[in-house]
Design a protein that fits this description.
5 helices; alpha+beta
């Protein structure tokens, strides 16, 4: 496990360890946290966090937020996605896969098929639904040399649960972005594309 150098101004920190050989202070919090997980002593983790510095507590809050998002995404997929749906895969090299089997008999994996026909198994939290809605708005990218930028925006839209299509124009590209409501689509374009704000935790 990586040793994290401590640069926090937190007096009497119970996790600060001074290395005489390296002549620097290191944070032992992450080692202790990992040990509790390995030994399945989960009940000890909250008090571990409470005694940590503000930086560690903020980082733990961030990680908890991410875990809640991925759990919500997985539950949404299991509840609402149908066999045969094209879904977005957040892991590996396949971005769009076909859902061919939901978990059975307590399995924590979902079975999908890649565009090449390869069958893969991933956890539900690693998949996200792509909207089947027909509410849409267009986003214009000027310049015929900006195909890569158009493809990156198409990827970003699908990553956030929208359906997207690229149409070549004489002097650029038009992306049609589809969602479950007009408000969602317009907010995505306004916030995520025009203002470069990450809206994924909120949709």
């Amino acid at each position: 496990m990586t040793d994290y150098i401590c640069r926090q101004d937190f007096k009497d920190c119970p996790y600060r360890v001074y290395d005489l050989e390296k002549k620097d202070s290191f944070c032992n919090y992450f080692h202790l946290h990992a040990q509790f997980i390995i030994s399945r002593e989960f009940s000890k983790i909250p008090s571990l966090i409470q005694r940590a510095c503000e930086w560690v507590q903020k980082d733990e809050a961030r990680l908890k937020f991410i875990r809640e998002i991925t759990k919500r995404r997985g539950l949404d997929l299991l509840k609402n996605a149908q066999i045969g749906d094209i879904v977005f895969c957040y892991v590996g090299t396949y971005h769009e896969v076909k859902l061919i089997e939901k978990p059975l008999d307590g399995s924590i994996f979902v079975t999908c098929e890649t565009p090449s026909g390869k069958v893969i198994r991933v956890q539900p939290r690693d998949l996200g639904r792509i909207s089947k809605g027909f509410y849409f708005s267009e986003y214009y990218i000027e310049g015929i040399r900006n195909k890569k930028q158009a493809q990156e925006i198409e990827y970003k839209a699908k990553y956030n649960g929208f359906r997207a299509e690229i149409e070549r124009k004489d002097n650029g590209y038009v992306l049609k972005i589809y969602g479950d409501s007009q408000q969602e689509v317009d907010d995505f374009i306004n916030l995520s594309l025009e203002q470069d704000f990450d809206i994924s935790p909120y949709i």
